């Protein structure tokens, strides 16, 4: 019975968590979102129950006092919605590649310090941005060259466009697609703190004008007002500071990551387009659609790149770097020695049910024959495996499994041809 085809969110390689069948995407620390919700919800409810309901009758004209708790509740819902939008959507995750970028491959040149016969590619590229060259790095995890202003989040394990930071209070990365909602959430939280603090202080003032002439007696009569004022004062240092800091970042078109990392480099900001244009770019530009369809069915992975060694070596001039590669891949006694050094049990699995002793005898016979006649070359196409990828050096070696299978194929073909040739059988005997 065929297994049901999986969806993208079910085979996701990042550390994200999905809810409602992939409709909502959160970071791995999404539980901290409950803490943030409680820090907003509880103080507002305390304010409505112990402070706002006593202020209803202080503004008797048109029953304006009822607007005080109503504004607090509406403001709270607005802040929670912004928090949810920031946390539950794709921040701008860049799709991963199934293999390294083959168009960037180059053969190592020993004159430049490279290893002959090894495929490698540059770890850094330069792109032109607003008339200035900007370096972009290669991501070993996602196997892509990161776009400008993109960075890999170690918590979510994703590359995010215009990566700002990973916010533990939101439980999500802050990137290109959710930055404006994050700023609106932080600034609205600041205004909510100011509103609750101001209304609590106003209630203390009304108490002092009535039966509690001193501040101490008024606060003793309404301890909830005192607690709310202290809480809002502390929270203002946090959310208010974030609001001011991100206002500065928007004015200069920077991200938190860029500000902390390149602050001491004194490098020019190639993305700054003026204060007004920077604000318009954040708040008035259209949000780019997500590059992922999390509920779509998983498609077959793209096949690994095929490196045509034979054709490229024929076109290479004698004495060039690829001639060295051709020498290294020369099919002769070296290849047979490699095949003999390998575990013949593995070769037997690849070839069928041949016995290990039969393999050794055939290899010995063909080694004697190969001294007078050249063994046919390996097929022109060799498939590169991901397991041979060296992340630290940025080089790509031929896998020993590939060489072993090719050697075994050569031995098998020549063994069958030798059986059909009586003179060779006589010499072998």
TrEMBL record:
<dbReference type="InterPro" id="IPR039859">
    <property type="entry name" value="PFA4/ZDH16/20/ERF2-like"/>
</dbReference>
<dbReference type="Pfam" id="PF01529">
    <property type="entry name" value="DHHC"/>
</dbReference>
<feature type="transmembrane region" description="Helical">
    <location>
        <begin position="33"/>
        <end position="52"/>
    </location>
</feature>
<keyword id="KW-0812">Transmembrane</keyword>
<keyword id="KW-0449">Lipoprotein</keyword>
<keyword id="KW-0472">Membrane</keyword>
<dbReference type="InterPro" id="IPR001594">
    <property type="entry name" value="Palmitoyltrfase_DHHC"/>
</dbReference>
<dbReference type="GO" id="GO:0019706">
    <property type="term" value="F:protein-cysteine S-palmitoyltransferase activity"/>
</dbReference>
<keyword id="KW-0012">Acyltransferase</keyword>
<comment type="similarity">
    <text>Belongs to the DHHC palmitoyltransferase family.</text>
</comment>
<dbReference type="GO" id="GO:0005794">
    <property type="term" value="C:Golgi apparatus"/>
</dbReference>
<feature type="transmembrane region" description="Helical">
    <location>
        <begin position="224"/>
        <end position="251"/>
    </location>
</feature>
<feature type="transmembrane region" description="Helical">
    <location>
        <begin position="181"/>
        <end position="204"/>
    </location>
</feature>
<dbReference type="GO" id="GO:0005783">
    <property type="term" value="C:endoplasmic reticulum"/>
</dbReference>
<keyword id="KW-0564">Palmitate</keyword>
<feature type="domain" description="Palmitoyltransferase DHHC">
    <location>
        <begin position="137"/>
        <end position="261"/>
    </location>
</feature>
<keyword id="KW-1133">Transmembrane helix</keyword>
<keyword id="KW-0808">Transferase</keyword>
<protein>
    <recommendedName>
        <fullName>S-acyltransferase</fullName>
        <ecNumber>2.3.1.225</ecNumber>
    </recommendedName>
</protein>
<feature type="transmembrane region" description="Helical">
    <location>
        <begin position="64"/>
        <end position="86"/>
    </location>
</feature>
<dbReference type="GO" id="GO:0006612">
    <property type="term" value="P:protein targeting to membrane"/>
</dbReference>
């Amino acid at each position: 019975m065929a297994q049901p085809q999986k969806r993208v969110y079910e085979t996701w390689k990042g550390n994200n968590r999905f809810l409602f069948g992939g409709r909502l995407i959160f970071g791995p620390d999404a539980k901290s979102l409950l803490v943030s919700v409680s820090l907003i919800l509880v103080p507002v409810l305390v304010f409505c129950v112990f402070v706002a309901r006593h202020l209803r009758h202080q503004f008797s004209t048109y029953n304006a006092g009822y607007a005080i708790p109503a504004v607090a509740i509406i403001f709270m819902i607005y802040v929670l919605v912004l928090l949810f939008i920031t946390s539950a959507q794709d921040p701008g995750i860049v799709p991963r590649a199934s293999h390294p970028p083959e168009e960037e491959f180059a053969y190592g040149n020993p004159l430049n310090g490279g290893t002959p016969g090894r495929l490698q590619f540059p770890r850094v590229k330069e792109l032109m941005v607003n008339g200035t060259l900007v370096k972009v790095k290669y991501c070993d995890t996602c196997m892509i060259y990161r776009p400008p202003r993109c960075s890999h989040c170690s918590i979510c394990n994703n590359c995010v466009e215009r990566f700002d930071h990973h916010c533990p209070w939101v439980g999500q990365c802050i990137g290109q697609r959710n930055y404006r909602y994050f700023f609106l959430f932080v600034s609205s939280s600041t205004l909510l703190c100011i509103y609750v603090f101001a209304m609590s202080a106003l209630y203390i003032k009304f108490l002092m004008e009535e039966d509690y002439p001193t501040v101490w007696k008024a606060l003793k009569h309404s301890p909830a007002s005192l607690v709310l004022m202290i809480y809002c004062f502390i929270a203002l240092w946090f959310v208010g500071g974030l609001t001011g800091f991100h206002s500065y970042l928007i004015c200069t078109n920077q991200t938190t990551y860029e500000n902390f990392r390149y602050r001491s480099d004194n490098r020019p900001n190639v993305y700054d387009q003026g204060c007004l244009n920077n604000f318009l770019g954040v708040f008035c530009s259209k949000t780019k659609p997500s590059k992922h369809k999390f509920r779509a069915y998983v498609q077959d992975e793209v096949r690994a790149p095929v490196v045509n060694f034979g054709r490229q070596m024929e076109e290479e001039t004698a004495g060039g770097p690829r001639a060295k590669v051709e020498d290294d891949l020369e099919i002769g006694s070296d290849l047979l020695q490699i095949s003999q050094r390998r575990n013949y049990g593995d070769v037997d699995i690849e070839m069928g049910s041949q016995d290990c002793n039969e393999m050794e005898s055939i290899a010995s016979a063909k080694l004697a024959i190969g001294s007078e006649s050249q063994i046919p070359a390996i097929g022109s196409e060799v498939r590169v495996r991901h397991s041979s990828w060296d992340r630290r050096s940025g080089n790509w070696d031929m896998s020993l499994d590939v060489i072993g299978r090719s050697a075994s194929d050569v031995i098998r073909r020549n063994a069958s041809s030798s059986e059909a040739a009586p003179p060779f059988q006589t010499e072998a005997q």
